Write the structure tokens for this entry.
Amino acid sequence: MKVPSSELPRRQFLQQIAFGSALLTTPGLFAEQLFKTPAMTEGPFYPDKLPLDIDNDLLIINDSITPAVGEVTNVIGRILAADGSPLQDLTIEIWQCDANAVYLHSADSNPKKKRQDTNFQGFGRFTTGSTGEYRFRTIKPVPYPGRPAPHIHVKVKQGDRELLTTQLFVRGHEGNLRDGIFNSTRDLIDRELLQADFNPIKDSKIGEFAANFDIVIGRTPDENSFRPGREPRR
């Protein structure tokens, strides 16, 4: 009888996490057992009108000299196939609310109701190279009403085909366990795969953070049976 992961003894669970981390950082090692990044809801605030600037630096819009408000964070990682090999020429998109908890979406950024940070790009894209690596410069995510867990939305595409939609959470944040979307993931290993450490960068003069989030693509669009749910509207 298979024991659900939520009932695994702590020692056994931590051994599985350590094993999974080794696989993620060592392409080709027991590659058929790579843990796949879980899919999550897209939510209601994917931009309904993309900004003119959609590069991977969300802190500066075009040639502006005024940066966005927030704790500067460098989000980096690799996009890998299930066998551990890097995936080239994939588009990764991220979007998140600004430091005032406002999304770049007409249903959320009404200037009469909310104070939007107009210097925050709110959305960015990056195309992976031969190593599968990606990088973004953004702000450390913040909670907003209805979602106590700070998070960054992530979507991976191959051309116009969506391969994965998920969310990146701040590991250990006290709001995670009060967040309905985070708690919809019951498996403890899957929860670990959706989190990253946001660590201060040593010697950074502006107090920057860095987060490393590797993404493992496990299913093609045709095979992906995930049906996005909905996040609570505010």
